[in-house]
Specification:
- By secondary structure, the protein is α+β, with helices and mostly antiparallel strands.
- It folds into two domains: about 10-205, Barwin-like endoglucanases (Beta Barrel); about 225-295, Sporulation related repeat (Alpha-Beta Plaits, 2-Layer Sandwich).
- It has six helices and 14 strands.
- It has helices at about 25-30, 160-165, 180-190, 200, 235-245, 275-285; strands at about 10, 15, 70, 75, 85-95, 115-120, 125-130, 140-145, 155-160, 175-180, 225-235, 255, 265-270, 295.
- A hairpin with a 5-residue loop joins β7 (about 125-130) and β8 (about 140-145).
């Protein structure tokens, strides 16, 4: 039986191929958190030319998704500490509607119309250029997820990325994956980095509706109740002092959450609109010598 693209399930925070269910029978028989069993793309073919590639930027590594080493089905993987020279060849697959709207390994919300990807060992986040060896088409994606755990597959792309690269219908394609150093990239990048894709894609978009365009093609979508907690104090006066300081460095609401069963007064910023704002705000707090914040949901 053939499985198209990345027919898979999530177990312990990682995506596994449906073929591996025989090895995890009890897990596969348990109720799934996904609304559909078989992965697929949109209900009709859509144009993705208007969705830009991910734009490489300097970002801190997240705690979420970067555990190293980690073990999946008896095989141990390590996150690459210095990925600057990373280049690999293998097969790319894609994942779509089944995972759309669910969390990726770093806590962002997966959007099959974005330009993101899953990788087994590159740091989260990372940026890579993926080139389809069959047609020479390339695209830039942002790594924010873990997988694919299929032998021979080096990267799992969104529906949009796979369509840009021309292998949505085939499910997989041989690719070259190259790490992009954001600092070097931004010194040399042309205004339209993916212009070479146009000739390959032009013939496929006639009569197709446009795919919904994410606010950020590189991901960054987070749950609606996401906050940054900057401090927790046993005395309300200390919490109010920090609250006043934080109000001078952010336009987001800064509130104190009083104890219920806990004796701590928690100072939180938010709710935050996306993970890009989380990153920028964390950097701003560090620049102002303020306490390190961590993400909480309420």
């Amino acid at each position: 039986m053939a499985f198209r693209n990345s027919d898979s399930v999530y177990i312990f925070g990682f995506r596994f191929g449906a073929l591996l269910c025989v090895l995890l029978l009890s897990a596969c028989q348990s109720p799934s958190r996904y609304s559909i069993k078989q992965d697929t793309g949109p209900s009709q073919s859509v144009s993705v030319n208007h969705i830009p590639d991910a734009v490489p930027r300097v970002e801190p590594r997240t705690i979420a998704g970067n555990k190293s080493p980690y073990t999946v089905l008896g095989k141990t993987y390590r996150v690459i500490g210095a990925p600057e020279n990373y280049k690999a060849e293998g097969f790319a697959s894609w994942y779509g509607k089944k995972f759309h709207g669910h969390k990726t390994s770093n806590g962002e919300i997966y959007n099959m119309y974005g330009m993101t990807a899953a990788h087994k060992s590159l740091p989260i986040p990372s940026y890579v250029r993926v080139t389809n060896k069959n047609n020479g088409t390339s695209a830039i994606v942002r790594i924010n997820d873990r997988g694919p755990f299929h032998e021979g597959r080096v990267i799992d792309l969104t529906y949009t990325a796979a369509k840009k690269l021309g292998f949505v219908d085939q499910g997989t394609a041989p690719v070259i994956v190259e790490y992009i150093d954001p600092v070097k990239y931004n010194k040399t990048a042309l205004p339209v980095d993916s212009a070479t894709n146009t000739s390959v894609l032009q013939a496929s978009v006639a009569g197709q509706p446009k795919a919904p365009q994410p606010k950020h093609s590189g991901g960054y979508e987070i749950p609606a109740n996401t906050y940054l907690q900057v401090g927790a104090f046993s005395k309300r006066e200390s919490a109010e002092t920090l609250q006043h300081t934080l109000q001078s460095v952010t336009q987001y609401p800064v509130n104190i959450y009083a104890p219920d069963t806990s004796r701590w007064f928690r100072v939180r910023i938010g709710p935050l609109k996306d993970n890009l704002d989380v990153i920028l705000l964390r950097n701003k707090l560090a620049d102002n010598q303020l306490p390190e914040a961590h993400v909480v949901y309420q």
